[in-house]
Structure formats: structure tokens, C-alpha cells
């Protein structure tokens, strides 16, 4: 009853299968190191049949990237419940899962280069950043953030990217430490901005007031206080 | 006596002139919007003569980018004198000068895309990042930084890039505020890391001990203390 399954795949099903296979290969090597022959072999079909579904490697790469982008954006979704620090920490855990699963492909993409630097790949990366931005704005209970708050959020997203890229390069620091550190970095960047801006200070006070005494933000505050010389 | 000056330009001199002209044009528009005809006209020579010196627009773009990279790296050089916070603040001033002078070109380059995403452009960007990294390591009085310190420095460099890019997009926050904020962000990222790592804590204590009571770091500390509820 299961013979001929490959033959019976519909067009959409076959495209989806090829995208999955390609994503698996592109996750583990830079795009220039993955060939159409390899994708065909991994999918169990002929090279001309791959070209029947995708005109070339770049279009298959972009389709795989689109799949990865949707997958990553889905991991940002977090219920609006409980303290913000713990929500952020859970999202960071899922972000590092993603980075770990797609490591070499993520590095190649984010570090740029001829095989990945098309307008479409840039647009997909920006789409994921925008989706992260909107999630955070929503978690903070804001609608249209003031320019300084927008800067803090977008800066922090770029910090999360660069921290993940550096982690991938040798994994010299445990990822759990970096996930927690990034949550703290968010508080730190917001605090620096709040030190000079009353609107930011108000937002930050409201966030910190809702944090539990044993949550990641409170823990950071206690450790920072221990660090500072008492005579300051 | 000055007639025929254009004719008498040597090969190197002509190349340098073309690079200057191209850098001026590429600084103000994305590379895809600048034509060889325009470069030829601005340089006062014929289109074929441009091709005599540079095989195509991409090679001229890369030469202009190389010039800009050297110029930017030169602005990172700062005497090893006085408090670190003030040195960083002066470097941030020169960095924002550079970003302001080359705004649209800087955005196009850093946001990537087909016209700028070659391996050579990536390598030049990484070269500038590495030079910034080495300058900071040297200012901190370190030789081979521990992994956590390296992460803080490289993360901060990427934060400076993303802050500058966001500033260029509408200039909604005064640049002087962002220059000071970035100096504070450096202290904040180091402090977060130091809260969990004794080696970082030692380095940070040594830096802060050398800071004057009215310098940017001390000012930040005072403002942050004012922000935190007293019962913490």
C-alpha cells in the first residue's frame, strides 16, 4: 500500500519536501558549499526534477530561509503572563535552540557574502527583526514606543544576534549564561536610557515594580549593588 | 603653468582621484544608484578612461570602501591618556562624524544587499571591526582578553553600529546624546557580565577606580542610583 509514495507527491508536497531537505543542508554549511546534486540526492529525486520545482539554488536557498524565518518568528511568541524577565528568558532559550540547530547556516547568513546577500534575503532578515520588535513592544504593553524606547528594543535585538553569532564561534561561554545575560542586557540598556530620559524612566519603573524578588532582574540588581563600592 | 594638469596625472594619482570622487558619490547614495557615467563626469574624464583604471563599478566601489575603512579606522586612534570614559566619548564623536559624512552609503553597506554583499566588502567591514576591537583591548590595558571580556567588547562594537544606523534613519535623537549613551552602554554591558564573573568584576573595578568624579561613568552611576527604588 505504501509503494509509489514518492510518485504520488503533489506539487506543493514535493516543494515542501525539497525546502525541508534544503533547510537541513543549508543549516549545516554555507550556501556556496551545498550543491543542487546533493539536495537532489538527499530528497531522493533527480537533479532535473529539482530544477522543475526551483529554477536554481538561490531560489531554493531563499525558500529554505523563508521557512527558517517563519520558524524563528514562531519561537518569539510567548504568553503575556508572569514577570517580563522570565518571559524574555524563555524566549532567549528558544532563540538559542534555533541558533544551535541552524548554526553554520545562521552564521553564513548573518555574516553576509555573495551567496546570501540578495535584497530578498535582507528583507527576510528584517522581517524577523521586525517581528521580534513587535513582540517586545506588545509584551511591554506599549503601542507606539517613543524613539528612545524603540532604539533600546532594536539595539537589544541586534545585541542578541551578535551575541549568538559570537557564541557559535567556538561556544566558549555556556549558552545558558548568555541567555540570562541578554535578559540583563535589556534591563541595562533600558536603565542607561532611563538615566537621562523621564519617559523611559517611568516605563522602566513600571516594569521593575512588577518583577518578583527572585526573578532575573531582581537578581541582577542585587549583584550589581554588591559590585559597586559602597562609598559611591 | 597649470594648463594640462589633468593630462599630467600619473596612474596612481588618477586612481586616487577616482577613488575620492567615487567615495563622495557612494557616500550619499546606495551603490546601485551611482553610475560609471556619473563618476566619469564628476572626475572630468571619459567613461572608457574610468574603465582603464577600474574594470567595473564593483571594483571602484570596493576601492572607495577600502579608503573609507582606512579613514574610519584612523578615527579610532586615541591617545592612552586620561580617563577611559572620556577617551571613548571622543572616539564616539569622531565615529558619528564619519557616519554623518557618509550616511546613505554607510546605511546601504551595513544593511547589505546584492550590490554591496561581496566577500571582499564583508572582509573590509570585519577589518574595521577588528581594528576597533584591538584599540579598545589596548585602551583597557589588556593583551589577550578573557572570552567574557572579548564578548563585551565585540558586542559593544556591534551596538555602536546598530545605534548609528538607527540614528541615520530619521535622526530623531540628538547624536550627542547617543554618543554619551554608547559610552554608558559599554559600562552597562561590562557591569552585567561582571555581576556573574569575578575576572570581569576585577577589570571593571580597576577601570571605575580610575574614573574622575565628574566623568561620564560617574555621572551614569549617580543617575542610575537615583533611578532605583531605595528599598532594593
In short:
Chain A has 232 residues and is an all-alpha fold.
Task: Explain how this protein is built.
Chains A, B: This is TetR/AcrR family transcriptional regulator. Chains A, B: InterPro entries: DesT_TetR_C, Homeodomain-like_sf, HTH-type_TetR-like_transc_reg, HTH_TetR. Chains A, B: Keywords: DNA-binding, Transcription, Transcription regulation. The structure is a homodimer of 232-residue chains. The first copy, chain A, starts with a helix and ends in a 5-residue tail after the last helix. Chain A folds into two domains: 1-75, Tetracycline Repressor, domain 2, CATH 1.10.357; 77-232, Tetracycline Repressor, domain 2 (Orthogonal Bundle), CATH 1.10.357. Chain A has helices at 5-8, 11-28, 36-43, 47-53, 57-75, 84-101, 103-111, 119-139, 147-168, 175-194, 198-209, 216-227. Chain A is 73% helix and 0% strand. In chain A, 34% of the residues are buried. Chain A is built from twelve helices and no strands. By secondary structure, chain A is an all-alpha fold. Chains A and B meet through helix 8, helix 9, helix 10, helix 11 and helix 12 of A and helix 8, helix 9, helix 10, helix 11 and helix 12 of B.
Question: What is the CATH-assigned architecture of the largest domain in chain A?
Answer: Orthogonal Bundle
Uncertain segments of chain A are: none
Helix/strand structural class of chain A: mainly alpha
Strand content of chain A: under 5%
CATH topology descriptor of the largest domain in chain A: Tetracycline Repressor, domain 2
Could you give the distance between the termini of chain A?
78 Å
Q: State the helical fraction of chain A.
A: over 70%
| Mass-distribution shape of chain A | elongated
Number of domains of chain A: 2
Specify the CATH class of the largest domain in chain A.
Answer: Mainly Alpha
- Most extensive interface: A-B, 54 and 52 residues
Rounded mean pLDDT score of chain A: 89
Return the string of H and E elements of chain A: HHHHHHHHHHHH
Radius of gyration of chain A over alpha carbons? 22 Å
